[in-house]
2-hydroxy-6-oxo-6-phenylhexa-2,4-dienoate hydrolase (Acinetobacter venetianus), 314 residues
Amino acid sequence: MNSALQFNVSPYAPFMQETKVTLGNGIELHVEMGGNPEHPTILLIMGLGAQMLFWPDFFCKSLIDQGFRVIRFDNRDIGLSSKVRHKGQRLNTMKLMSRFMFGLANQGAPYTLYDMADDVAMLIDQLGLEKTYILGASMGGMISQIVAAKYPEKVEKIGLLFTSNNQPLLPPPFPKQLFSLLGKPEAHDEDSIVNHSLKVFHIIGSPGYVNQVEAIQTIRKLYRRSFYPAGVLQQFLAILCTGSLLPLNKNIIQPTLVVHGSKDRLLPPSHGKAVAKAISGAKFELIQGMGHDIPAHFIPQLSGLFAHHFRSSH
């Protein structure tokens, strides 16, 4: 572990410590870690527009209790990590999306998922981690696939949660789910964001498992911590300008577990199945009733699956 880093107790989870890590490419990432430093490390990589707190405290604690050190962080352009100010031309998102559906990459984004994967590789180096386990959700799962393929020496095993390899002709997200994620709130004050985000949680979340009171508390906490909608759009453009990861999947040699919810309507389960099929020897688990979120109800099952995968000898 890099001894120059200054740690404080996390204001969100008392069993975690937080710090800032300068990567050396102009990006600084806000990082939290918890658990015994002697234990194997799981690095959690979050999805589109999602601060690291979208990894629930209960999920992190559950992995720590099963014998792991857990690290979560804000990707670039979100939360308390560096924001990328970009003065380029405005891109036509619809045009990019139609090319993307056919597995074609696009030009013009301020950065791509390859740059975000480089952030992760530099973070692993800066934290002085030996081979680590990585667990990526949604866009974070796409980033994880790139890290594993490009930097095999840094990654021991991979866990992927409700993600995709964006190969050509996968069934698209259900329009309601996609547009809820990309939709604009009526205003940028806290209550408008709560109302807007609550709708999103209900539309993409696990049907019947979204806890209204907890969801509102989470949204307020995230809004007060950081609100930067420009970063969400830039991360979306990064996905669209990365294109299909199918050619990369052939290079992934690490043991891989792909987990998907049966009720995911943002990235239907066939996306996760496509990833598992494309990565040699990957295992696939479908969680009945789960959507594109991590509700408390599914955490014992999810953390158990990933802990078992990371612990198993092959």
About this structure: The CA atoms of residues 116 and 143 lie 7 Å apart. The beta strands are 8-9, 16-22, 28-34, 41-45, 69-73, 132-137, 155-161, 256-261, 283-287.
